[in-house]
Amino acid sequence: MKIIHYRDMKPDQVTGDGVTGVTIRWLISADDGAPHFAMRLFEVEPGGHTPLHTHETEHEVFILEGTGAVWRSGEEVEIGPGTAVFVPPGEKHCFFNRGTAVLKFICMVPHS
Amino acid sequence: MKIIHYRDMKPDQVTGDGVTGVTIRWLISADDGAPHFAMRLFEVEPGGHTPLHTHETEHEVFILEGTGAVWRSGEEVEIGPGTAVFVPPGEKHCFFNRGTAVLKFICMVPHS
């Protein structure tokens, strides 16, 4: 059993097209023996966002802190602490920080 | 895409041997079209706990609020907001609320 506080893991900057001010921590991954899916913690700076993109794997997201929006079919839907988001496989999505504090969420994804 | 606040879902009492003061909300499940795994939100009352049990599916847990402990190999390990717990398949586990406020966590599990 792995028991870890997210602050005890070093964040890595997320790079690539369409990403601004985003870090990731891989809290649980295949390296831990997780057989099916991984848990990552993302932090998005005020004004930052993840890429507007799509992929074959689904996301299951839970917002921890901060306020922002998720892109859904061309419109932005508000998100905040306690919001759960299911992004089905192949659906375009993007997470924006629209607030003044860090937007923090965990995102689970099946191993690719 | 499903976007929902956990408070907008009704909690169900968890019943069964070895469970005390626990509710569950299924935030994302196979009914939503989630292909691989589900997200549930648990609330454990002060003094309450989940069953000490084992099963073939893994758990990936993230603590949101409250303080408590997880049973690991016969000892209790403290948990609190920001703690991630990976319970491998077949490993015995139990989550205790050892604080004075509700212990709240999300728990992902593959579909059985």
Describe the 3D structure.
Two copies of one chain form a homodimer. The first copy, chain A, has a domain at 9-29 and 49-74 and 97-106 and 108-112. In chain A, 0% of the residues lie in helices and 54% in strands. In chain A, the strands form two sheets. Chain A has a six-stranded antiparallel β-sheet, with no helix packed on it. In chain A, strands 7-6-9 form a three-stranded antiparallel β-sheet, with no helix packed on it. With 112 residues, chain A is an all-beta fold. The model of chain A has no long low-confidence stretch (mean pLDDT 98). Chain A is built from no helices and ten strands. The A-B interface holds A 1-7, 27-28, 32-37, 39, 41, 58, 60, 62, 64, 70, 72-73, 77, 79-80, 82-89, 91, 93, 106, 108, 110 and B 1-7, 27-28, 32-37, 39, 41, 58, 60, 62, 64, 70, 72-73, 77, 79-80, 82-89, 91, 93, 106, 108, 110. β8 of chain A pairs antiparallel with β1 of chain B.
**How confident overall, as mean pLDDT of chain A?**
98
DSSP strand count of chain A: 10
Overall geometry of chain A comes to globular
Assign a percent range to the helix content of chain A.
Answer: under 10%
Strand content of chain A: over 45%
SSE succession of chain A: EEEEEEEEEE
For the report, how would you describe the main beta sheet of chain A? Answer: 6 strands, antiparallel
Q: Supply Rg of chain A.
A: 14 Å
The N- and C-terminal alpha carbons of chain A lie at a distance of 23 Å
- Count of helical regions of chain A: 0
Oligomer: homodimer
Model regions low in confidence, pLDDT < 50 over at least 5 residues of chain A: none
| Largest interface: pair, residues per side | A-B, 40 and 40 residues
Classify the secondary structure makeup of chain A into a structural class: mainly beta
Query: What spatial order of strands do you see in the largest sheet of chain A?
Result: 2-3-4-10-5-8
